[in-house]
Specification:
mainly alpha, 2 domains, 19 helices, globular
Length: 417
């Protein structure tokens, strides 16, 4: 059915089709004010295209994206480390701890009831993805890819199919995990904000409102600014990624599958180098390649949906919905206990902070600012107060869960596959 996309079709045509799918997802996201995730739209269109025969299953390979996928994945992990501000986390340590607690809740929910209902392998694959973002998903897809390679080596066709389904499961969980958060977060956070405005003292109100949240400034790097060209930045990121790979291989010689994952090592190394001002902050942005690198990673990450048919997709719906549901229940219970009995804080808002692992930046920022606009209702002082107080907490919660916690969790969980 895709004669116009035959093997002789130029790669630039296939590239344009993929960009059209991605752009349409972005359009719907902006039009719906982020209520419809662009990733969900992209995955749905790619899946429908594959099922109907409109899109060839090898469209991504033929555009050349596959060759850059592994490189882009490594670069984006290292870049995440360069965007971390340790001081931002330490000043909101309770929020950071709640993020960790939320991930523990996800693991408990998915690896107990989820594993019992849907199977151990599916629980292992889904848990870090429910608790994190794109990097956690890539880590688990790589783990499933090792299963595929082992099955191919011994001619186990069923094992290959199992590995492909696990890869698709990781992609599909990530594509829909934010949807429940869109429904849960706004009413709870708006209620917390209104209660806050009713109880806050005038002195605290003026103090917080006068200190609007802004980006953390960073000192110049050891290398002079003029030498940080696009190529130089990418060179340093590639070096860090390479060191992480070889370090992981060395650790595997005596730790086996329980060795610290490459992505975790890359994250740790990049955080340390950034704190010592060897790497620049937000390296990909500074190099001007942030959008391109992310696009390459996204397109490759969801290529697995092109390899499954409609029946297989339907078979994955119960574990997708179940893992996300039990993950959310785990987040609620874990954050409730810590907030009520240890921190003595609003349990509803603690739940919202924990749900950041389903969103991350910029979705958590969008939901927070939109809620602030509704609650402030045009009062600039109230808006300033709510922005200064709630935006940093939501950003830290998302950063701790997705940028750090989920990557570490994925590195741990892949050893149980």
């Amino acid at each position: 059915m895709y004669e116009f996309l035959s093997e002789t079709a130029p790669p630039v045509l296939l590239f344009g089709i993929l960009m059209g799918i991605y752009a349409f997802g972005d359009f719907l996201t902006k039009k719906s004010k982020a209520l419809i995730p662009s990733i969900f739209v992209m995955v749905l269109l790619m899946a429908i295209g594959a099922w109907t025969g409109i899109l060839p299953p090898n469209i991504i390979q033929r555009t050349g994206f596959t060759g850059m996928g592994a490189v882009a994945s490594s670069i984006i992990v290292v870049n995440m480390g360069t965007s971390l501000h340790i001081k931002d986390i330490t000043s909101n340590w309770r929020v950071a701890l709640l993020g960790v607690v939320a991930l523990i809740g996800v693991a408990i929910g998915c690896m107990t009831i989820g594993a019992y209902l849907f199977g151990w392998d599916q629980a292992v694959i889904a848990t870090p993805v429910v608790g994190g973002g794109i990097v956690a998903m890539l880590e688990m897809q790589n783990a499933a890819g090792e299963l595929i390679a082992n099955a191919e080596a011994i001619g186990d066709a069923a094992g290959v199919t199992r590995g492909e389904l696990l890869q698709a499961l990781a992609a599909l969980v990530l594509s829909v995990q934010s949807l429940p958060a869109f429904l849960i977060i706004p009413p709870i956070i708006k209620k917390a904000m209104r209660r806050d405005l009713d109880t806050v003292s005038d002195a605290e109100f003026k103090e917080v409102a006068s200190t609007q949240a802004g980006p953390t400034t960073s000192k110049p790097t050891i290398i002079p600014e003029q030498y940080w060209s696009t190529a130089t930045i990418l060179l340093f990121l590639a070096i860090v990624g390479t060191v992480a790979i070889y370090l992981n291989q060395w650790l595997r010689t005596f730790m086996g599958n329980y060795a610290i994952a490459t992505s975790v090592l890359a994250l740790i190394i990049s955080i340390v180098l950034t704190e010592f001002r060897i790497l620049p902050r937000n390296a990909n942005v500074k190099a001007g390649v942030s959008g391109l690198i992310f696009l390459i990673v996204i397109i490759n990450a969801f290529s697995s949906v092109l390899t499954i048919n409609l029946d297989q997709f339907i078979s994955l719906l119960p574990p997708i919905a179940g893992m996300i549901f039990f993950g959310i229940i785990g987040i609620f219970l874990a954050t409730f206990v810590v907030a009520k009995f240890i921190f003595k804080m609003d349990t509803g808002f603690a739940f919202v902070l924990g749900l950041n692992c389903l969103l991350g930046f910029p979705l958590n920022f969008v939901l927070t600012t939109e809620s602030i606009d509704v609650v402030a209702n045009g009062d600039e002082e109230k808006k300033a107060y709510l922005t200064a107080k709630y935006v940093p907490m939501m950003l830290v919660a998302g950063f701790v869960t997705i940028t750090i916690g989920s990557v570490i969790l994925a590195g741990i969980m892949r050893g149980f596959l």
